[in-house]
């Protein structure tokens, strides 16, 4: 029974959880915090009442910004029983068919009427609703529900939901990576639990979070990042447990060449810089102290009576020195932690036995790919994403010239949504223009010590040459 309770608690909303709000086709990732105002689709509300409910629950936004669980309604509404027309040829869209004005609708809202009741009033006061076909009536009701129903659904974050959220709201942040392309990347790279995966991405942490979700907290993920530090905004939205982050390591891409050459020193660089910074802080303190004494000696000679103010200044100076020492110590601790993380990531990479490589960035992938392939074991997959095909074509030709890879494939993905309804199933009118391009392949072991066998191939084999001479003779 206790195990069943623990499993059920996983599917219930708790305070501090990261969730995704959904209304129609629009998503937003937020964190559950008490008395924190959340603004979603021009409406504000609090998520306090959502705690304890199951994920995928739908709530109504009532007065005061509070959430109330939506009651289950009958699928058949009163409007379904009404008569419908045969076609829409006699309906004119002149704006005079609706008797209710905008002021009347606002008055209904002030009276406390909810979305479904307002929609029913709009139907009753429409002079052309009964003349519309059944399909047109359903379309009209769906359009009004989207406008007047104040509901929100709370979902548990997942790779697919977050990919759809980013692609719908801010596609530029994830290099226009579509969710079907992301799923193909995870499949082509053979991401699974217990593997060691290298990830280089500039997609706000979405690809990194998708890899961590697929691995389930088992194995190790090494994030190769450009710049001063890794970006993991998307990883936080997943809401992973603490043990997931224990498998995550980071390594700066600028140190890859030094690690391949064997010249990377993870023991002396950061401590020396920390000591030099601390010595500079101490030297600055020693320089400022005699200046303070020089400025203080004439003041003490001229203002001997104000001993209290001098004592207060001394205390302030001591507090400033303590703050400087505390900041220097804190900086030293951070540098030491950074050095340890760098050494741990370098130790994982030095074995050159990674099981997969995933690249999805706004930078040109060719130099990054050629450098990171050295860390993969033979017979291991790799996949590179780019919004454009020209950089991947360059990578393809470079890999063919360099060797060490097989099964190279350059593909693009095509996606189309369909409306599936009785007697009206058809493709959606609007669709995504493109989902980017993928270059995938598999590494193989190459023996560089053997000489090339080019000249020998031009000669004819010895046994065959002997047979020809026998027949001629």
Task: Give your account of this protein's structure.
With 473 residues, the protein is of the alpha/beta class. 44% of the residues lie in helices and 17% in strands. It has 16 helices and 16 strands. The strands form four sheets. Strands 10-9-8-11-12-16-13 form a seven-stranded mixed beta sheet, sandwiched between helices. A five-stranded antiparallel beta sheet has the order 2-1-7-5-6. A two-stranded antiparallel sheet has the order 3-4. A hairpin with a 2-residue loop joins strand 3 and strand 4 (43-46). Helix 11 (269-302) packs antiparallel against helix 12 (307-350).
Largest sheet: 7 strands, mixed
Cα-atom Rg, whole angstroms? 33 Å
Number of helices: 16
- For the residues shown, what is the average pLDDT? 80
The strands making up the biggest β-sheet line up spatially as 10-9-8-11-12-16-13
List keywords for this structure.
17% strand, flat, alpha/beta, 473 residues, 16 helices, 7-stranded mixed sheet
State the gist of this model.
The protein is of the alpha/beta class. The protein is built from 16 helices and 16 strands.
Secondary structure blueprint with pairings:
Elements: H1 2-10, E1 18-23, E2 26-31, E3 37-40, E4 43-46, E5 57-61, E6 67-69, H2 102-110, H3 115-124, H4 134-148, E7 151-155, H5 159-169, H6 179-188, E8 196-201, H7 206-215, E9 220-225, H8 233-238, H9 242-246, E10 248-252, H10 256-261, H11 269-302, H12 307-350, E11 356-360, H13 365-372, E12 381-386, H14 390-402, E13 405-412, E14 418-419, E15 426-427, E16 437-443, H15 454-458, H16 462-472
Parallel strand pairs: 8-9, 8-11, 9-10, 11-12
Antiparallel strand pairs: 1-2, 1-7, 3-4, 5-6, 5-7, 12-16, 13-16, 14-15
Helix pairs in contact: 3-4, 5-6, 11-12, 13-14
């Amino acid at each position: 029974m206790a195990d069943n309770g623990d499993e059920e608690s996983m599917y219930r909303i708790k305070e501090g959880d990261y969730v995704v709000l959904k209304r129609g086709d629009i998503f937003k990732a937020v964190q559950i915090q008490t008395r924190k105002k959340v603004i979603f689709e021009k409406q504000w509300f609090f998520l306090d009442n959502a705690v304890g409910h199951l994920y995928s629950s739908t709530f109504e936004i009532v007065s005061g910004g509070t959430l109330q669980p939506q009651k289950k309604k009958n699928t058949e509404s009163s409007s379904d029983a009404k008569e419908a027309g045969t076609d829409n040829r006699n309906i004119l869209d002149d704006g005079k068919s609706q008797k209710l004005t905008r002021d009347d609708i606002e008055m209904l809202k002030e009276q406390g009427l909810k979305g479904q009741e307002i929609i029913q009033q709009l139907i009753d006061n429409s002079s052309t609703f009964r003349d519309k076909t059944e399909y047109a009536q359903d379309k009209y009701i769906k359009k009004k529900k989207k406008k007047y129903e104040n509901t929100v659904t709370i979902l548990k974050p997942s790779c697919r939901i977050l990919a759809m959220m980013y692609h719908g709201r801010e596609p530029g942040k994830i290099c226009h990576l579509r969710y079907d392309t992301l799923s193909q990347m995870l499949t082509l790279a053979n991401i699974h639990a217990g593997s060691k995966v290298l990830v280089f991405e500039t997609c706000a942490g979405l690809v990194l979070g998708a890899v961590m979700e697929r691995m389930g907290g088992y194995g190790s993920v090494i994030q190769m990042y450009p710049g001063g530090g890794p970006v993991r905004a998307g990883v936080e939205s997943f809401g992973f447990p603490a043990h997931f982050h224990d498998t995550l390591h980071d390594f700066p891409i600028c140190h890859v060449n030094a690690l391949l050459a064997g010249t990377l020193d993870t023991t002396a660089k950061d401590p020396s810089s920390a000591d030099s910074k601390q010595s500079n802080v101490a030297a600055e303190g020693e320089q400022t102290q005699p200046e303070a004494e020089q400025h203080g000696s004439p003041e003490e000679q001229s203002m001997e009576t104000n001993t209290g103010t001098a004592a207060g200044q001394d205390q302030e100076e001591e507090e400033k020195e303590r703050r400087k020492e505390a900041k220097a110590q804190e900086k030293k601790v951070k540098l030491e932690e950074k050095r340890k993380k760098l050494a741990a990531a370098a130790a994982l990479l030095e074995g050159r036995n990674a099981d997969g490589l995933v690249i999805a960035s706004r930078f040109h992938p060719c130099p990054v790919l050629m450098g990171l392939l050295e860390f993969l074991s033979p017979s291991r997959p790799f996949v590179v994403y780019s919004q454009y095909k020209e950089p991947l074509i360059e990578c393809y030709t470079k890999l063919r010239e360099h060797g060490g890879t097989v099964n190279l494939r350059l593909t693009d993905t095509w996606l189309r949504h369909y409306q599936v309804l009785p007697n009206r199933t058809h493709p959606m009118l609007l669709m995504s223009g493109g989902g980017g391009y993928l270059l995938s392949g598999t590494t193989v072991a190459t023996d560089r010590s053997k000489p090339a066998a080019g000249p020998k191939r031009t000669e004819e084999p010895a046994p065959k040459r002997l047979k020809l001479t026998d027949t001629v003779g």
